[in-house]
Amino acid sequence: MASEDVVGKTSATIANLAEEAKIASEGVKAPSRHALLSICKSLVAGGVAGGVSRTAVAPLERLKILLQVQNPHAIKYNGTIQGLKYIWRTEGFRGLFKGNGTNCARIVPNSAVKFFSYEEASKGILWLYRQQPGNGMPDAELTPVLRLGAGACAGIIAMSATYPMDLVRGRLTVQTDKSPSQYRGIAHALGTVLREEGPRALYKGWLPSVIGVIPYVGLNFAVYESLKDWLIKSRPFGLVEDTELSVTTKLACGAVAGTMGQTVAYPFDVVRRRMQMVGWKHAASVVTADGKSALEYTGMLDAFRKTVRYEGFGALYKGLVPNSVKVVPSIAIAFVSYEMVKDLLGVEMRISD
User: What are the protein's UniProt keywords (predicted)?
Assistant: First the structure.
């Protein structure tokens, strides 16, 4: 009789453990599926934001690159209006959007990774910050400096992951109908660069990109989030009546963030783009009359030195005007598109959460 009681109790214990394990297993799976779905939605929102914002300003993006790398001894583009008119006259409407397909193929995954990385980096940095004594845990919030760090991490990860596409985009954007040899598309360009210049060529200009992306993306996120927080908390001039900013106000925050970030980082973007053209003997716009490339650099510092020495300090800001015209709506549209798509997809977490 005693043995039967023991067996019965043992069986009941095993059944209870099995039931608890089942409940625990289901409890783990549900949040995991929910988290995975949330990640996918966040990536989609970031990708859509990047594609929409870049397509909207594609003509200005192309003109900026052409101004950055054009031969100083054979000037074709003298300014924003003249440059756009010249492209329209010589290449037609399609010329204004040349390279935009490649740009979207790059910017969609880049933007998706960037926004998602920022959110994850923000959570990680905030967690570490709250572990430090004297930071007011668990109520501590991200400071502008911490947001700068999270944005820098996000920019480096996204840029590094898609850099070969950026190099190819730059070359497809620069080539014209008069280029001696034509890249026929993304795959052909990647294959040609690998075959003629080697795998390392796909990362030409990576170092100035890394250095430049820290203040650029970092300031974008830090200024955007800090402005939003300040407006919500202080409600200056009666602009904010509740805790939710209007689309117009968000656009203004994004515009300010984009202007500050691109002004600080722009010289690195010029050097990066010039280094990407080194070794491309068929780039018509950067080749001199005797067939020699006007862009020959041994590294980042050499590119800075030669650019300033032969063209003056102002050359580091070539294309700044069309880029300024472009970057304000581009960054603003990207931030607003991202939050709107996340709202449509039902993602609970916003950038600033």
Answer: Membrane, Mitochondrion, Mitochondrion inner membrane, Repeat, Transmembrane, Transmembrane helix, Transport
